[in-house]
Amino acid sequence: MRYYMKILEKLWKAIDIILEYLMAVCFGVMTIAIFLQVVFRYVLKSPLSWSEELARYLFVWVSFIGGVIAARNGQHIGVELLVKKIPEKIQKGFTCFANFLTSFFFLIIFVFFCKMWPMLSMQKTSALLLPMSYPYLGLGIGCFLMAFMYLMEAIKPFTVGGNN
Question: What local confidence, expressed as pLDDT, does residue 142 receive?
Answer without folding.
Answer: 96
